[in-house]
């Protein structure tokens, strides 16, 4: 439990809960985005008895564990350079993981027979380092679980996940149905195998969706967006998170390097080409779609600060639907509507971007109205 002294000069006077006839008036609680604060501001003697304002010691309590990170100068964080500092910090974190992964991949490739291509191994090690780094970085920058979007109980997290999963399946399901209707993708003609294999496919897609969503949402929405929102502005948090979320999907992991040509510096030699894929024009449609996906997921977390479970559920459903779509449908070549999907996975492209952009704009309008109401309530 964290307790801090609250200066009376910083508190807007409030109306007491009780009437003037009572012996005292106590201001008990204030609701904030991330924590519930309970404290006593003051007591006021009965009207007409001539007593002055009886001030007391005020405390602010939070259910989150204490965190003491101060990674950025406070004066700098409110300057015009703050977004660039935040962007540079996130970039440094990403590059550090990539460079360390490039060096570790060579010995790991020969010591452990993982049966995957060397570029893919570098990619997987880098992602693993980013995930592992969540814990020390979170502690260093003073980010509590609540500020990362995690609810207080497992039951709340599971409930959020379930609702998010259903909504996510509907959102991307509409896109898949549209692609089949436009003959951009067609259902495979070969008969579907027995129920045992179908169940395995469903379980595999669900398992992949849950693993990917938990890891990526903890990294991007939890750590990155949470930190950017705490030390920057909503706008910079939305844009920077979306850039890294979309860009990371195109960094390396493809191609082959013969084992005979591998050496200690091979991983480092792959880094420039891997990073350049972010700006490859061939991936523009998929990049923009993923950028908008991130904006939508971040908007969910803005509306519900402790609602990362919704983001995980939405993300898991999208991976689930994508896996099944690629399993049971195939791309139709030379279709005039083929530009609606990207080359990244044959599904994510301009159609997803437009559909999610419409949803995000409508949803974002509702979120802005709720934020305005919160600010108005806080002033009173």
Task: Give the structure's gist in a few sentences.
The chain has helices at residues 74-77, 82-111, 118-132, 134-140, 154-181, 195-231, 234-248, 266-276, 284-303, 308-328, 350-379; strands spanning 2-5, 29-31, 36-38, 42-44, 53-55, 59-62, 185-187, 329-331.
Write the layout of secondary structure elements.
Elements (H helix, E strand, L loop, with lengths): L1 E4 L23 E3 L4 E3 L3 E3 L8 E3 L3 E4 L11 H4 L4 H30 L6 H15 L1 H7 L13 H28 L3 E3 L7 H37 L2 H15 L17 H11 L7 H20 L4 H21 E3 L18 H30 L1
Helix pairs in contact: 2-3, 2-7, 2-8, 5-10, 6-7, 6-10, 7-9, 9-10, 9-11
Question: Any key phrases for this structure?
Answer:
two-stranded antiparallel ribbon; disordered N terminus; globular; single chain; 8 strands; 11 helices; 380 residues; mainly alpha
What does this structure look like?
Helices cover 57% and strands 7% of the residues. It has 380 residues and is mainly α. The chain has two domains: 2-62, no CATH class; 74-379, no CATH class. The strands form four sheets. It has a two-stranded antiparallel sheet with strand order 1-6. Mean pLDDT is 80; it is low at 1-69.
């Amino acid at each position: 439990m964290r307790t801090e002294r609250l200066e009376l000069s910083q508190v807007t006077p409030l109306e007491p809960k009780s009437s003037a006839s009572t012996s005292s008036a106590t201001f008990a609680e204030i609701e904030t985005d991330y924590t519930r604060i309970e404290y006593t501001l003051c007591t006021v003697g009965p009207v007409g008895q001539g007593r002055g304002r009886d001030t007391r010691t005020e405390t602010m309590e939070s259910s989150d564990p204490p965190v003491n990170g101060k990674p950025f100068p406070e004066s700098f964080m409110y300057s015009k350079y703050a977004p660039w500092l935040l962007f540079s910090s996130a970039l440094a974190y990403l590059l550090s993981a990539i460079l360390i992964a490039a060096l570790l991949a060579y010995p790991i490739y020969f010591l452990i027979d993982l049966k995957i291509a060397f570029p893919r191994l570098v990619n997987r090690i880098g992602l693993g380092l980013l995930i592992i780094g969540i814990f020390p970085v979170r502690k260093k920058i003073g980010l509590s679980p609540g500020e990362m979007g995690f609810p207080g109980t497992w039951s709340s997290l599971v409930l959020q996940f379930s609702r998010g999963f259903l909504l996510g399946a509907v959102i991307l399901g509409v896109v898949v149905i549209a692609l089949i209707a436009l003959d951009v993708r067609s259902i495979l003609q070969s008969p579907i195998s027995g129920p045992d294999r179908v169940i395995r496919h469903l379980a595999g897609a669900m398992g992949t969706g849950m693993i990917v969503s938990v890891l990526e949402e903890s990294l991007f929405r939890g750590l990155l967006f949470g930190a950017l929102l705490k030390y920057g502005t909503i706008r910079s948090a939305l844009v920077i998170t979306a850039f890294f979320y979309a860009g990371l999907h195109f960094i390396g992991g493809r191609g082959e390097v013969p084992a005979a040509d591998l050496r200690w510096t091979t991983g480092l030699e792959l880094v420039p080409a891997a990073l350049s894929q972010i700006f490859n024009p061939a991936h523009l449609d998929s990049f923009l779609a993923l950028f908008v996906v991130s904006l939508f997921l971040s908007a969910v977390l803005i509306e519900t600060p402790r609602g990362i479970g919704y983001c995980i559920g939405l993300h898991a459903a999208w991976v689930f639907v994508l896996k099944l779509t690629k399993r049971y449908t195939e791309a139709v070549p030379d279709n005039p509507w083929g530009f609606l999907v990207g080359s990244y996975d044959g599904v994510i492209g301009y159609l997803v971007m437009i559909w999610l952009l419409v949803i995000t704009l409508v949803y974002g309008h509702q979120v802005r109205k709720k934020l305005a109401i919160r600010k108005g309530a806080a002033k009173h």
